[in-house]
Amino acid sequence: MKQLSLTAMKRDKVKTNTSYKLKKEGRVPAVMYGPGKPNMNLSLNTRDVLEIINDESATNAIINLTIENDNIQRKVMLKDYQVDPVKNKLLHVDLYEISMDKEMTVTVPIHLVGRPKGLADGGILEQKIREVEIRCLPDRIPEYIEVDVSALGIGDNLHLSDVKFSDDIKVLTDLSRTVAVVTIVEEEKPAAEEGAVEGAEATTGAAATSESAEKSSSSDSEVKK
Prior knowledge:
Blueprint: E1 3-10, H1 18-24, E2 27-34, E3 37-45, H2 46-53, E4 62-67, E5 72-83, E6 90-97, E7 104-113, E8 124-127, E9 131-136, E10 145-148, E11 157-159, E12 170-171, E13 178-183, H3 191-224
């Protein structure tokens, strides 16, 4: 599990113009909370937070948080953040305080590795789920779950129950869920050819109807005689 460091400043009073002032200082408002603990209003360096947000490997990372003006150190995780949809600017950050001896529930991405043998026969690999929900101690949270799909042939499925997890991880996602499958796409007849066939059938039908009408007319004239 990746661990990062972040510094913060405690804010005792929250005013309506706080966000504007912090923005000018290159900082963003934040709140730290946790089970059974009061919320704490903070401010963070915007650039430092963006580095964590933009780092895919930092998902579920444990952050060693130092609150400089209160001599406090905490272990937290980036829980959520808000971005201005128009200006694409970071507006607010939520930090979740964790205890290293208490299990927590998180979502971890699934990475497929290997080349399925079915690809050589014209198959296509489809990944059905891209993340899995697990529960474990914070320092046991994996960066991602690696799933080997190299043994999959055409028509083969790999379910979550086929994936080996560490004994200290509890999987909360339904184990019957399909993680990956190798399928083959059947060739379809071009639309032009299908239209041509339908046209030919229509022409044949029209000719048969015309021929039948001629015979009927001939028969009628023979009766009248």
